[in-house]
Amino acid sequence: MSANPHRGLVLKLLVFVAGSFAFGFALVPLYDVLCSITGLGNQKSLTRAVAQGAETVDSSRAVTIDFMTNLPTVGNWEFRPVVQSMQVHPGKLYEADFFAHNLTGHDTIAQAVPDIVPSKAAAWFHKTECFCFSPQSFKRDEQRVMPVRFFVDPDLPAYVDHLTLAYTFYDVQNRATASR
User: Could you tell me if 165 and 114 are in contact, meaning their C-beta atoms sit under 8 angstroms apart?
Assistant: First the structure.
């Protein structure tokens, strides 16, 4: 009789776990539907919009984009932009490269987290392709150049003529191992 009082609680907990698991799987298609409806976050539609909107390039205006990098764990990685800054015309698609070198001494996985400054202008800066979209696997001592393709929306307020794209590069495999 001692197991019977807990049977209902165990059953409720199992249903809760199964529901949470199903909800986690449902989030990906729900996110895709939301992106297709709103057009936000959908990299394919952004690329298509840039390709179709070549006539919306504002060649009379130039915006300076500075590139910066940050490493929270010093000594494990070399991570830097290939160019420090570039002048861009709003509405035109550009590509910038970042160099990463795994100095951890073992195979690992890293993730870049982007930041746009000033943050109020982030809504007008669009990445169509970026190494920051997914974790990057690196072999021991591997080095590579990683591109980011982007455009600045022509509707960027006229008073904004300077943006900074900064990345913090985390060794996510080491962080996961350290938290165990």
Answer: yes
